[in-house]
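A reminder before we start the practical. When you read a complex entry, don't treat the lines as separate problems. The point of joint prediction is that each chain is placed relative to the others, so the output describes one connected object in space. Small molecules and nucleic acid strands, if listed, are placed in the same frame. In the example below there are four entries. Take a minute to note the order of the lines before looking further.
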Amino acid sequence: MSSWATSSIETPTLAVSTVIFALRPNGDGCLQLATPLVRRIRAPFEGQWALPGGPLNTDEDLATSASHTLRDTTRLEPRYLEQLYAFGSVDRAGGKLAERVVSIVYWALVGADEADRAIQSENVQWFWADELPTLAFDHNQIIEYALGRLRNKIEYSRIAHVFLSETFTLAQLREVYEAVLGRELDPGNFRRMVESTGTVEETGERLAGTRHRPPKLYRATTITAGETK
Amino acid sequence: MSSWATSSIETPTLAVSTVIFALRPNGDGCLQLATPLVRRIRAPFEGQWALPGGPLNTDEDLATSASHTLRDTTRLEPRYLEQLYAFGSVDRAGGKLAERVVSIVYWALVGADEADRAIQSENVQWFWADELPTLAFDHNQIIEYALGRLRNKIEYSRIAHVFLSETFTLAQLREVYEAVLGRELDPGNFRRMVESTGTVEETGERLAGTRHRPPKLYRATTITAGETK
DNA sequence: ATAGAAAAAGTCAGAATGACTCTAAGTAGT
DNA sequence: ACTACTTAGAGTCATTCTGACTTTTTCTAT
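Here is the predicted structure of the whole assembly.
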């Protein structure tokens, strides 16, 4: 093994970035997966869109760093945050950067209400997750990977309600699943699944103002211990 | 946001470590999960056992770094290697270290044959995964986390055969599952499961020299595309 | 030959799943 | 006030999946 007494400039820079997902209504009034991106204001990839992120602050934990950068750049405070993967290929800057950067990437979910409060500016914009432009670094692959994780995780865990506000109807919850998975679900079977897993409970209220039978309102059951896993 | 023009000594050190699993026969002749650890030869935690690992080499990818460190310290060349998690709490050295270390941890599986070829010395030893001493840093928690991942992943993917040699009987494969999951499985149901998922194929050979009906030998079917996921 | 042991195939009941039907309870239009 | 329309919500049914179990086969050891 080689000596490691060389100057610490040899150590790759550590960055923390986050893939944020929200469901936003598209032209058809359907919910669609969207992700906010920020425009790079310096080389390399200046002017191109990239994941929000930044260098790891020395006195911050990884997840804390992700939250803070998110708040600073997009003003978003996600309701769900989980580590996705550490990306550290030697060539991930595509030869455009002298120093090496290892990115620890998180993924996050925000509710529709929260998503509207995000900064929208020249340099921060929402994009549909399945119609992204060419992004800086390897960020296209990273978002693709995060999408896979989200689609997989929604099937076996109870994170779907994070996209909604505190109370919601089963039809709204089903809409979340349909938007994420990209296919329609049978309303009856969906109801049976949700009720059998005990992820929601009735509030006793119903949603008024619809032009049909008023649906019951539910809330997510409080999670005991580390069940989100 | 604070200025980032400070010297790069502010950047945390990046280390890559690996949790290695193998199945080794214990006193009863049963297979049991074991993991090799190395003794630390410098502060902090000098003399205590720790995961094999080391600083990230600037010109190596993360997984490559994991393999190389493994080969150098334990002489093992795992047949399966996957990123586990990036651990980077500010206090993970327990106040015993001035500089901050972020560890990108991999987990690996080695076959029983390969495991025997590992270095066994004063400073490198196999431990039963469920009877570990107190390790350096947060390595006890890391191994616990890796164990959970292994147990989870063996249920939905086809990694079990990696613990065995190229050809094996269904009884041997079942033994792997039983050792990892820590419970007995019904032989008939196990056979049905394995055959229905098409993860193995007959070699045409049978294992001779048993004191009963000779079982068929199987090999793992070759995996097409990224199916291990 | 016979006993013992595990391999390999088969059985069966209950749970989970997907496709589907039927009834309830609202609104909107006339 | 009645009717048409729409979705909520309950229920049905056939198929598949799962776990527990039984039976038959085929080898070695004595």
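Discuss with your neighbour: Chain A touches chain B through 29 residues (CB under 8 Å). What might explain this?
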